[in-house]
Amino acid sequence: MPIMITILLLAFLFFVSLWLSIVAFIAKKKSSSSSAVEWPVVGMLPALLCNATTNLHGFITRLVKESGGTFLFKGPCFANLDFVVTSDPMNAHHVFSKNFANYGKGEDFKAMFEELFGEGIVNSDGESWRFQRQRIHSFLTKDGFENYVMRTLHQKMEGTLFRVLDDACSTRRLGTVHVEVDMQDVVSRFMFDNICMWVLGFDPGYLCVDRQLSTFSCGKAFDEIEEAVIYRHIVPRSIWEFQKRFGIGSEKKISQSTKVLDEFLYDVVKTKKQELHKEEQHQQLDLLTQWLVADEKGESSDKFLRGESSDKSLRDMVFTLIAAGKDTLSSTLSWLLWLVATHPDVEKKILEEIERETEGRLLGVFMIDKDEMNRLVYLHAIICETLRLYPPAPFELRCAIEDDMLPSGHLIHKGTRILFSIYSMGRMEEIWGKDCMEFKPERWISEQGSLIHIPSYKFINFLAGPRYCLGKSLSFMQLKFIVSTLLWNYKFDMAEGQIVKPFPSTMLTMENGLKMRVSKRDV
Ligand code: HEM
């Protein structure tokens, strides 16, 4: 009997103390100004899940601002989902440049992107990464490559993009009112074809004049993977791995889309290898041909890829380059078109600059040379400003190899993951000033009219240090050509009632697309 009384007494005390701690926790939560409450056992996961589908980037930006630049995101205690989240430029400088050797992509990142990038450059570290970087860099800077890219771009714009837009304009003139074009979809298809032309050497026709005819499923598969993979960032690895094993939910989508892509890419690799010895094939400048030719010449200098590359490593290489170029450029273009359409003063200034610097030669798709391109300073500033507010790759992840201390004073243990929010960095008052939320291209231009240099660790959209983006200068060249030609020839107005907001994805796309009315510009 006394034992029974003792047990009842202990149970009573346990429930009273549990009740008191819950009451205290809720009271603390109510008085706390933090946007993410840390719950017992599940950590901050409920707050992340609540915000993940509505305003993931805004939520993280709020947390980063509240914490003064860096905070620890606590996941559930059983899930290994803790991250140090930061938007502090000094931390970026430390991790990406000064102590570069201590930070890799980490096992979790590799697992997340395994079936997509495989051993491709963005998913590798060490020797394999160094070798691929040096090779891709030499191809991109090879004599004639830039011209080749600009020629293929010109060809696709004139042959397809302008005709698609002309169609949209003439339909309006014939009286079919309210014809709206989803420009996000158009530029995404256009960029996919464009990148394929210089990575694979042919145009797969994802954007074609009669878009009803485009049955090409590979481009769609790319888009679907990108949407689905964000889920792997949010839930514990064991959960998405379980779903992957049994083909459930977004994991089913990823495996179906990867299959479609693999069929296409392996087929391209096989055909390319077979045709390599045909006359003039060696002269082709697309990156896949250049890679195969370099293999033949025995230029491999690495254990990883000595001799002829396997079909798998070629597939990984081309997939990675298409992914690196397509989404980044199409995201920048979409946000830029929206920002210009909603800022008439900026639109007016850019048209004045194009007229002044190219003497109006852009009517139709005319090539502009490098000198003319360099003179388009305001356009350059518009691109930087778009990237600042809407970075195509909003996050960057790194994992510590050994213990370390960040300049912000945060102790980093071996294996800790650090998530850089590039989106938040673009909206920090400490970096950009009080008007950081405004779209203001002028902030990039000095009083003398030249571009202001912002250190790469403050503007890490192309990353900083030894792993900075290999496609940066190619991207500016292409974007300047596409934007100047498009804006000079067409006027883009927002469709009525269109709400533009970011979609929570690994790439910063727009949730509801970008519906616009297109008309020919009267110049
Ligand atoms: C607006 C356009 C672009 C932006 C904002 C951008 C941004 C980035 C970022 C943030 C990274 C670092 C990724 C990581 O380490 O996880 C990166 C890497 C890379 N980018 Fe870009 N990129 C752009 C366009 C391109 C284009 C057109 C190419 C085409 C060749 C390209 C090729 C690469 C490659 C090969 C890497 C890997 C570099 C390495 O790991 O050493 N990028 N880019």
From TrEMBL:
Binding site for heme: C469
Requisite cofactors: heme
Keyword line: Heme, Iron, Metal-binding, Monooxygenase, Oxidoreductase
Pfam families the record matches: p450 (PF00067)
Source species, domain of life: Eukaryota
Gene3D superfamilies xrefs: Cytochrome P450
Record-linked SUPFAM superfamilies: Cytochrome P450
GO-annotated molecular function: heme binding; iron ion binding; monooxygenase activity; oxidoreductase activity, acting on paired donors, with incorporation or reduction of molecular oxygen
Family the UniProt entry places it in: Belongs to the cytochrome P450 family.
Protein name per UniProt: Cytochrome P450
